[in-house]
């Protein structure tokens, strides 16, 4: 053929096209990922490309400046109005004139990659369920009387190949005025799920809608609720925010909330109402923080443990209070946000809840599996997601096991005398000098250590508010290493330890980290009660991990991943000194940050990931800690720091 050769980068896709073919058309025919919201009308600018002229021996093309058409009036108008970056053309306007290599920049790709922070993590590929489509709808006509919705549907079919649409009554009431206001040109946001249902019209705007679409990824924990507001076109996180779960007033941990529901008729509904209101408040505050209208939030993905799952959905969790721990459903759910009284987002926003695994192993664990992919690991990897309930996964390509362990809220700073949520003012890092036994610490919001020059005096006197989860983990581990604690967790007296910082407190002792009278600010100590709370939490965590190792028939693991809402900050070394996790070479222990939250983001940005996790959870074997007698034995043995019997050879090095 003598037609010019067109090569697209970075995909490398190529083909011959007749002179005059628009670049967007060529891209479509070759299956090149080039975005378009306006369908080639030259108004959305999503289709920008960069022609590369010069020698391309690799591609066998010699392109010239004349290989694309001159600017046309549409491009000129666009450039005059908003400006095109230098060297950029609109792919729907520029036509092929000769051999050419065309680069599609990342922002013009629908399925662009969103890079995650952790170096080992795979990128998130954008493929959202809700997308924007600009359409030109035929005007009504006396002679062919069809409804406006039917004409919108036909326009979507002809211009975008979309088969069938549905619209609910609240959308119907906007349809007619918006079509007329836009002079029959409108943008619709269509939600198309991964399960073959008809596309649903979520929103309609007159003309071209240019203010984007947003989604929320929410990790609904027993103690904290964390949300990420995400741009559904770019995948960028616009704001992250969190608050305490207001259900705490009904019970600190899951089982006490289940019993609240058992003892109080209507108690489950009270808790449902409380958590939904908190999510509504969080939705409003996070949109304000990001400076967007909350009406633009069209999708929300939830990950949570089974009790939170039921209470969010308004289902009584009573069956989760006793064996066999039957869930109302373990399947994923897709439903309108309005059905859950989530009123502070778009009225037609869609909610997706990840599937639960079984019993007390929930959607949060599924989200960790989606984020960390234990089933794709050649090495045997142990993943612990630390929270009020720890989600634990152990596996590799041949098999994945999962359990949930009731650690209690100590790792999140609750039930600790000076404990608090990770927020500015919280001590998050602590070191204790093994010789002088003097502490130094760092506070969230300050870069400096307390003994460094430049440590903010204001913080020292009035800005310190308490210790967060990662801080208390480090404090206990450092106390053990400095000899202030014995193996059983008992704090020694000033005489025994040789430091006046070990002060009497009732019949026990406490370690003084920050003294109010001498140093200003609050008095912050680690008490014997705090040590006991951390011991209980870490024993539960360790026992859960050991139970999975027994089940897998192994004594060691190749790799450990520590995750949690504050997982990025847990020091892996301190976690091991404490015996939170089994012994492993320290360079094989990594932090994954909030893996459950990341799993929620992946499911928010990519509909394929929803099918994937629904398949993966069916292959995960659940181990129920509550009915396993060996759990109790492991729990008792793990009470010592780091452990009563299990060796920690890596630690002694
Ligand atoms: Fe919208 Fe080209 S496709 S401007």
UniProtKB/TrEMBL annotation:
Mention any Pfam family matching this sequence: Raco_middle
One GO molecular-function entry? iron-sulfur cluster binding
Entry superkingdom:
Bacteria
Q: Domain 2Fe-2S ferredoxin-type spans what residues? A: 4-108
* Name listed for the protein in its UniProt record: Na(+)-translocating NADH-quinone reductase subunit F
Give the source species. Answer: Ruegeria atlantica
């Amino acid at each position: 053929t003598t037609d010019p050769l067109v090569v697209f980068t970075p995909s490398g896709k190529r083909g011959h096209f007749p002179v005059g073919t628009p670049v967007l058309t060529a891209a479509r025919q070759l299956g090149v990922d080039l975005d378009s919201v306006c369908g080639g009308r030259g108004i959305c600018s999503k289709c920008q490309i960069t022609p590369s002229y010069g020698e391309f021996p690799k591609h066998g093309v010699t392109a010239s400046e004349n290989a694309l058409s001159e600017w046309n009036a549409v491009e000129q108008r666009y450039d005059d109005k908003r400006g095109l970056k230098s060297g950029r053309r609109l792919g729907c306007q520029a036509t092929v004139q000769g051999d050419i290599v065309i680069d599609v920049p990342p922002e013009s790709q629908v399925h662009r990659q969103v890079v995650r922070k952790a170096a080992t993590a795979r990128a998130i590929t954008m493929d959202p369920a809700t997308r924007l489509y600009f359409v030109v709808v035929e005007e009504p006509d006396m002679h062919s009387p069809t409804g406006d919705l039917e004409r919108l549907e036909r326009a979507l079919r002809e211009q975008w190949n979309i088969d069938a649409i549905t619209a609910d009554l609240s959308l119907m009431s906007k349809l007619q005025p918006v079509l007329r206001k836009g002079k029959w040109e409108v943008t619709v946001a269509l939600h198309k799920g991964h399960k073959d249902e008809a596309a649903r019209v979520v929103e309609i705007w007159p003309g071209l809608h240019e203010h984007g679409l947003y989604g929320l990824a929410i990790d609904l924990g027993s103690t904290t609720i964390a949300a990420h507001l995400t741009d559904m076109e770019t995948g960028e996180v616009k704001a992250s925010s969190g608050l305490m779960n207001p259900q705490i007033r009904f019970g600190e941990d899951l089982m006490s909330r289940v019993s609240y529901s058992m003892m109080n008729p209507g108690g489950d509904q009270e808790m449902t109402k409380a958590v939904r209101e908190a999510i509504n408040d969080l939705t409003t505050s996070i949109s304000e923080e990001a400076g967007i209208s909350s009406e633009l939030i069209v999708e929300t993905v939830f990950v949570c443990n089974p009790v939170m799952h039921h209470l969010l959905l308004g289902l009584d969790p009573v069956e989760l209070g006793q064996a066999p721990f039957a869930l109302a459903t373990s399947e994923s759910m897709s439903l309108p946000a309005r059905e859950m009284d989530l009123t502070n987002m778009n009225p037609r926003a869609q909610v997706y809840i990840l599937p639960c695994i079984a019993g007390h192993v929930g959607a949060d664990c599924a989200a960790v599996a989606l984020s960390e992919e234990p089933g794709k690991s050649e090495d045997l990897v142990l993943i612990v997601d630390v929270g009020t309930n720890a989600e634990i996964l152990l596996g590799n390509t041949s098999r994945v096991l999962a359990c949930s362990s009731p650690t209690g809220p100590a790792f999140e700073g609750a039930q600790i005398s000076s404990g608090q949520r990770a927020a500015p003012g919280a001590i998050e890092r602590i070191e204790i000098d093994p010789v002088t036994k003097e502490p130094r610490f760092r506070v969230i919001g300050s870069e400096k250590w307390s003994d460094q020059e430049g440590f903010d005096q204001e913080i020292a006197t009035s800005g310190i508010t308490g210790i967060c989860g990662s801080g208390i983990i480090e404090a206990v581990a450092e106390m053990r290493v400095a000899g202030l604690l014995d193996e059983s967790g008992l704090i020694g007296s000033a005489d025994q330890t040789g430091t006046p910082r070990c002060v009497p407190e009732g019949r026990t002792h406490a370690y003084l980290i920050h003294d109010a009278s001498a140093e200003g600010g609050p008095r912050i100590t680690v008490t014997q009660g705090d040590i006991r709370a951390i011991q209980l939490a870490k024993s539960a965590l360790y026992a859960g991990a050991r139970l999975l190792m027994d089940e897998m028939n192994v004594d060691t693991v190749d790799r450990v991943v520590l995750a949690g809402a504050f997982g990025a900050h847990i020091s892996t070394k301190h976690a091991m000194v404490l015996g939170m996790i089994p012994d492993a070479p320290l360079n094989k222990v990594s932090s994954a940050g909030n893996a459950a939250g990341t799993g929620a983001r992946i499911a928010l940005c990519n509909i394929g990931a929803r099918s994937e996790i629904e398949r993966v959870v069916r292959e995960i074997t659940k181990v129920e800690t509550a009915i396993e007698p060996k759990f109790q034995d492991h729990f008792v043995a793990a009470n010592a720091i780091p452990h009563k019997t299990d060796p920690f050879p890596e630690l002694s090095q």
